[in-house]
Write a sequence for this structure.
């Protein structure tokens, strides 16, 4: 079930996302003793990760029971400035008390297909069942309608069996590493963060336009057994608000 929530400012978006994370972590840790999260890269979630590390918030999470995975990664070494892992480490991981074995980094320094295969093996060792059931997945949406590293007209959109894949981004001429759409859709909860006026028209097309997942891959994401919250700031939601008037 997908829901849309429009908040006034970027700061409101960050605080609402923090509360979503902490509430979900508390519930899943209470119910089953572990909280498995897939993280996204980009500029939008970074302040959320940083806010989680602030004293008032980090004390509310049992971090030793949280396992961090990455929903996608750039094909660069872990210390590269483009690395999603490095961004999360600097914003959050270095600032909380977390066992090293709870950090499941994509081995993106390897040959890209081998990195995808090895990471899928790590996922399969952690999760049982046909698909990995993450408790919480952070996602974003690009101006082109991509999410994770599932890009428009890329081969990875056709993946029906693999959990984690190497996917070539046609317009960017680069390889990425990413969860497949079916693996994302197996999640219990997905939080999509969208901010900025530049994404307003695409957001409206994704929600209200015709279904065209090859052109707007984020339309593929709709967890059948989980919940999906689109958390949007007022600038990104401005075209949606016109429809709601």
């Amino acid at each position: 079930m997908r829901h849309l929530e429009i908040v006034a400012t970027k700061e409101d978006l960050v605080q609402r996302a923090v509360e979503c994370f902490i509430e979900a972590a508390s519930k899943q840790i209470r119910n089953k003793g572990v909280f498995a999260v897939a993280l996204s890269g980009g500029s939008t979630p970074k302040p959320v990760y940083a806010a989680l590390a602030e004293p008032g918030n980090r004390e509310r999470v049992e971090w030793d029971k949280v396992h961090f995975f990455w929903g996608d990664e750039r094909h660069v070494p872990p210390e590269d400035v483009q690395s999603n892992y490095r961004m999360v480490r600097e914003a959050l991981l270095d600032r909380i008390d977390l066992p090293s074995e709870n950090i499941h980094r994509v081995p993106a320094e390897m040959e890209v297909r081998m990195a995808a295969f090895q990471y899928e093996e790590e996922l399969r060792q952690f999760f049982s069942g046909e698909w990995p059931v993450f408790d919480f997945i952070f996602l974003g949406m690009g101006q082109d309608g991509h999410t994770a590293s599932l890009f428009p007209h890329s081969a990875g959109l056709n993946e029906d069996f693999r959990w984690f894949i190497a996917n070539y981004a046609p317009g960017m001429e680069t390889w990425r590493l990413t969860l497949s759409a079916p693996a994302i859709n197996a999640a219990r909860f997905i939080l999509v963060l969208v901010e900025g006026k530049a994404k307003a028209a695409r957001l409206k097309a994704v929600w209200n336009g015709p279904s065209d997942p090859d052109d707007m891959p984020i339309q593929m994401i709709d967890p059948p057994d989980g919940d999906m919250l689109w958390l949007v700031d007022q600038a990104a939601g401005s075209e949606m608000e016109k429809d709601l008037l």
Notes: The domain at 2-232 is CATH 3.40.50.1360 (Rossmann fold).
